[in-house]
Design brief:
It is a single chain. The chain is an alpha/beta fold. The chain is built from 16 helices and 23 strands. The chain has an 8-stranded parallel barrel, surrounded by 8 helices. The protein has a 6-stranded mixed beta sheet with strand order 8-6-11-10-9-13, with helices on one face. The longest helix has 18 residues. The two termini are 22 Å apart.
């Protein structure tokens, strides 16, 4: 059984060797993530080039995501690199402090004193340390340690309930955005957007850079990780202005509390599906496999539940970037996804109730799903230029593979995040009957279908024009 759910793996020291990356792609990686919080532009360029080279060697077009750092809401450095705070102690966050000690530490985010008030709770080091603000004087925030623990250089700061005013795109992010698009990346992940306006601004910058460098459209991904971003109006506007969203459970959990995240995950995935956008579920999915060759049962359940929620992709961070078992982790994640997908229910008839379709190409796409399901077809195939037809199909669960046959490499890579879509490069002719024969031959050659199978095919006439899908054909494979 083909795996419908896509796997995204973060590149890092553990996975940037050619022999390791090659095995990761063969094990099932669909998209690689380059984390611009670490490394130089030259480092990322080298990784980008390596991914393209290995992808060509393996024969699989892997998408590349540039994940921008976002605002650095962090403490500064300590003279001894690390301290341990105890409950009840006083501690000062001081914008003017150069090197911290047991009593105070500096701030990378100099605007923090203007964002907080007495009574606010600040969560540091992924929530392991909790400070309560007692007063603010100038550039100093006087706090009381509510929950003690270790605190080292450059650890992050969140405010419980959100409310920090840092912009989603910093000067560094804008420079990195330009460099990433010049490389030819496929996806751009924006950290900490508050609303749709942040994503619209990112889209404007991305489109300008794409035009400057003569590259195709880059898909934007909103990382939903602020409390402000989950307010219904804000979340809906973020989804509307993005190509996809990432359920970034780490920072989001710190701001809204761990207990709220599972329900939020389900809501975000459902809203994105309804809007024909893709979703990525991320953070600590296989965390134990950083150091262990097998996942915990809780991690298995977490990945499986994300699949059953309808996520398009699941993402690995440190597990593949710095872990001891990057290839084994991908194999384990792929196995979990397939098992979960087998138990997922098909509800196409219910999905189409009370729906109105105003576009011919969308009607053909969803008609193909309905036809394939009720004819017990082996597969669905879509001759596509832009990728829109298989994207519409992928928003509905069906236990049939959707093969997107396209002559454009950029479309192959863009479809690498969509659930149950399998992009295939095919330079088909513009003559309809010959093109249909080429599709049948291609699917038979790759072992996707055999003689006697039924395939539901969508195409457009004239062929090769974006948005021109207007034909549905039922093929009995010879």
């Amino acid at each position: 059984m083909l795996r419908a759910t896509k796997i995204i793996a973060t590149l890092g020291p553990a996975s940037e060797k050619p022999e390791v990356l090659r095995e990761m792609i063969r094990a099932g990686v669909d998209v690689v993530r380059m984390n611009f919080s670490h490394g130089t532009v030259a480092d990322h360029q080298a990784r980008h080039d390596l991914v393209r080279a290995i992808s060509a060697e393996v024969g699989k077009e892997v998408g590349i995501m540039a994940d921008l750092q976002g605002p650095k809401i962090r403490v500064g450095k300590f003279a001894d690199n690390k301290i341990v705070l105890k409950e009840g102690e006083s501690f000062i966050l001081d914008v003017h402090c150069q090197l911290g000690d047991q009593s105070r530490v500096g701030l990378d985010y100099k605007e923090l004193p203007g964002d907080v008030h007495p009574g606010d709770r600040l969560l540091l080091n992924d929530g392991l340390v909790v400070l309560t603000v007692e007063k603010v004087l100038g550039g100093e925030i006087f706090t009381r340690v509510e929950q003690g623990g270790p605190l080292s250089n450059n650890k992050g700061i969140n405010r419980a309930g959100g409310g920090l005013t840092a912009p989603a795109l910093t000067e560094k992010d804008i420079a990195d955005l330009d460099a990433a698009i010049a490389m030819g990346i496929d996806f751009l992940a924006i950290s900490f957007p508050k609303d749709g306006a942040d994503m619209a601004y990112a889209r404007k910058l991305a489109d300008a850079a794409s035009s400057k460098y003569g590259v195709g459209k880059v898909r934007t991904i909103a990382k939903v990780e602020r409390a402000e971003a989950i307010v219904p109006a804000a979340l809906e506007s973020i989804i509307a202005e993005s190509d996809g969203i990432m359920v970034a459970r780490g920072d989001l959990a710190i701001e809204v509390g761990n207990a709220a995240v599972p329900a939020l995950q389900k809501r975000m995935i459902a809203l994105a599906l309804e809007a024909d956008k893709f979703t990525i579920t991320a953070t600590q999915m296989m965390e134990s496999m950083i150091n262990a060759p097998v996942p915990t049962r809780a991690e298995v359940s977490d990945v499986a539940n994300a699949v059953l929620d309808g996520t398009d992709a699941v993402m690995l961070s440190a597990e593949s970037a710095a872990g001891m078992y990057p290839v084994q982790t991908i194999k384990a994640m792929a196995e979990i996804c397939v098992a979960a997908e087998q138990s997922d229910r098909v509800q196409l008839d219910t999905d189409f109730l009370d729906q109105t379709f105003t576009r011919i190409d969308q009607t053909i796409a969803l008609g193909a799903l309905f036809t394939a399901h009720h004819l017990n077809a082996t597969a669905i195939a879509a001759l596509t230029d832009s990728g829109s037809t298989p994207i519409w199909m992928s928003r509905h669960n069906i236990h049939l593979p959707i093969f997107a046959l396209t002559s454009k490499i950029s479309t192959q890579r863009a479809l690498s995040t969509y659930r149950n879509v399998f992009p295939i490069g095919l330079n088909y002719t513009k003559e309809r009957d010959a093109a249909l024969q080429e599709v049948e031959y291609c699917l038979k050659a790759m072992g996707a279908v055999k003689s006697g199978d039924v395939v539901v095919l969508t195409s457009g006439e004239p062929m090769g024009e974006p948005g021109g899908t207007n034909t549905l054909k039922i093929i009995h494979v010879k």
